[in-house]
Specification:
- The longest helix is centred in the C-terminal third of the chain and has 21 residues, at 137-157.
- A three-stranded mixed beta sheet has the order 4-3-5, with no helix packed on it. Strands 1-2 form a two-stranded antiparallel sheet.
- 11% of the residues are buried.
- It is flat, with a radius of gyration of 21 Å.
- A hairpin with a 4-residue loop joins strand 1 and strand 2 (81-85).
- By secondary structure, the chain is of the alpha+beta class.
- The chain is 50% helix and 18% strand.
Length: 158
Amino acid sequence: MLDNAQRILDNYIEVTAKRKTPERYAVLKAIYGMDGHFTVEELNEALEKKKFIVSRATLYNTLRLLLKVNLVVRHKLVDKTKYEATLRNDNHSHQICTMCGKVIEVELPDVESAITSSRLYRFRKEGFSLYIYGICSSCQSKLTRKRTMISKNKTDNK
């Protein structure tokens, strides 16, 4: 997958006459070495662990370039912006907890089938992302415990 991503980046850089910098390839390699969604801070930490330091500006500029060539997708979520390598899976759905911000990818074959089989007027589909907002089971448990404590305190105070 990383090899394919590097070929796509190589082609784009050659066609647009941009420079092949080690920073661009280090960022790409770090992204395709990460599992799932990541923030800019997490990407920066992954690069630092590999002893590769890039400036914040370089990191954002490289992300912008990778977004342009569809090697990365940006998700603007409830609590922060996260990114994800796109060659892994162009079609996917996310469960997003509105309380803690946890993001879980889910497989919804019926949804994928419906979108894949739908015909769009003068538009070629390349992929999709679906966001389902709600409250995860951990946060639901916390809310239930909190409600129980409040009810108990009200009863005890009577």
